[in-house]
Amino acid sequence: MGRSNSDGVSHSLHPFLSSSRVQAQYTYERLVCESLTLLLIANMSSKRKAPPPVNGAVIKKAKTSSSSSSSSSLTDPHPFYKDAEEHGIVLRKYYPHEMSNSRALAYNENKLPRPIEQLQAAQQETAAARRKVQVGDAVVHWFKMDLRTADNTALSMASTKAKEAGVPLIGLFVVSPQDWEAHFTARIRIDFMMRTLEVLRADLAKLDIPLHIETVGRRKYVPVRIASLMEEWGAKHLFTNMEYEVDELRREASIVRLLAERGMAFEVVHDTCVVPPGKLITGAGRQYAVYSPWFRSWVAHIHTNLDLLEEFDAPARNPATARQKFEKLFGSSILEAPLDKRLSAEDGKRYEALWPAGEHEAFKRLGKFCQERINSYGANRNFPAANSTSSLSVHLASGTISARACIRAARDNNSIKKLDGGNQGIQTWISEVAWRDFYKHVLVNWPYVCMNKPFKPEYSNIEWSYEKEHFTAWARGQTGFPIVDAAMRQVQHMGWMHNRCRMIVASFLCKDLLLDWRMGERFFMENLIDGDFASNNGGWGFSASVGVDPQPYFRVFNPLLQSEKFDADGEYIRKWIPELREVKGKAIHDPYGRGAAAIAKKGGYPKAIVEHKGCRERALAAYKKGIAADI
């Protein structure tokens, strides 16, 4: 979901999850979880009474009281912090209260160090010591959300280091149940990761490379456990690809120092983004906060640095002695997810059929898309009934394919080898993939968006409704607005939703129901197979008008008009709402208002729970009041 309607590969709301975030003071994250949905419904009340670091884009300074300039304003929570806790947005088991607007702005004003700067400092301080480290008995690559052998930056570097020294390469994957709980990782996404690990282990085994998978019960012990494994294996070098969420960056900084103290080297490298964060700045030396000029800069930077699209070598085969030396590691099993994160057998079979796992399936999907649909993508991408998108968001979120591979494939299928020319459909798809880079760049420069704060801090002051019946109706696809309900039911069945529909249901939740956008953000993370924190957060910020480069708050999607425009024949609605399949013609968009009430009532389909026009007026008033609030 985002500024333009997109495929499942870009800025859309599909990707919803950050991986493992280290707990740290004033680390507040976007929290979303299946198990907490029921808690949220039960607790709802009616209403509440960058290397190198660059300056952020100018953001409107939120109004604050006279005491906001004091140090206490940076440690005090936001006045509405209890709402976020009562309704499951901030999980106090792991995170502090919602921060004040002043603290959020302190990052933008360079008064607080960004997590990327903390990692850079750790790397700089240990650089000399890391250079002196001699290769040990093995080299280790730590897999996270890069579950592939092809075009994997850190894995390729680790393999090169191991091959040059004539020692084995070991793969490591750490299961952290507390991170899954804290980040409310969807069961379907965990299932996809576990199935992907099976494919990855088999691929690595063909190269005599073991993949050790281990569960660490408490996430604060992950750094120490990794260090212990390194010592146990006699390894001196650990490689991994960088993740850009707050806790991940701080965790990596701590591991850099911990391993350096123990005479080991931890190399954290860029891989997820085609253009690493911090490379693109405005003429004023600031991070871009608007997508269009950022995208032009992104394209120009790649055209000038074509090596950014070069493919990294797959890992080399391990020495013949690897299997004997690390025999036990080759027997590492794929662990089952915790009971509260495990799918039923029936759901597991359905999702396995819908979403085959592993990098081979990712490349198969990419190839089929480029062969059959990419040329017409620009014209057809907005219509949910059409099979017009790539649905690669699932694979990009788990790293079974790189964004580089997607851009290369699009470029190579274009009539000219440019990213901003040639076939219009290909150009459009490239721009959609680029949104993923954009939102990750945003995380790095404005880290407070990982901490339950909107990009525009003053929008924290909006008085949201927490009407539990409305949230329940939205989540279950029972709002009485067919296009909204069809989309929500698609999620229930597939764990995925078309991006146009993501924007429709998000706008409906925030502006028609005036529910806190963070509840919807969390729900998506709880239920989507392609959960990616940056893209999910960016998409919800766009639709709720609280994020970077959003739609204006006074732009409110009319669900009826959206339905008529993007599902004119009602094919999508009829597919997902069986109660309405007998409704003929345009009545499908509004059965109770267009003469199909008897059919809808017979099927048990509900009447609309709200009236759009009145809700729009209420939303505009609430936004105006919140933005102007002196908090």
Automatic annotation (TrEMBL):
Coiled coil: none annotated. Gene3D superfamilies: 1.25.40.80, DNA Cyclobutane Dipyrimidine Photolyase, subunit A, domain 3, HUPs. One of its GO terms (cellular component) is nucleus. It comes from the Eukaryota. Its cofactor is (6R)-5,10-methylene-5,6,7,8-tetrahydrofolate; FAD. One of its GO terms (molecular function) is FAD binding. Keywords: Chromophore, FAD, Flavoprotein. The record marks 464, 517, 540 as: Electron transfer via tryptophanyl radical. FAD binds at residues 377, 389-393, 429, 432-439, 530-532. Binds 1 FAD per subunit. It holds the Pfam family DNA_photolyase. One of its GO terms (biological process) is nucleobase-containing compound metabolic process. Residues 47-80 are annotated as: Disordered. Residues 137-274 form the Photolyase/cryptochrome alpha/beta domain. Belongs to the DNA photolyase class-1 family. This is Photolyase/cryptochrome alpha/beta domain-containing protein. It comes from Cryphonectria parasitica (strain ATCC 38755 / EP155).
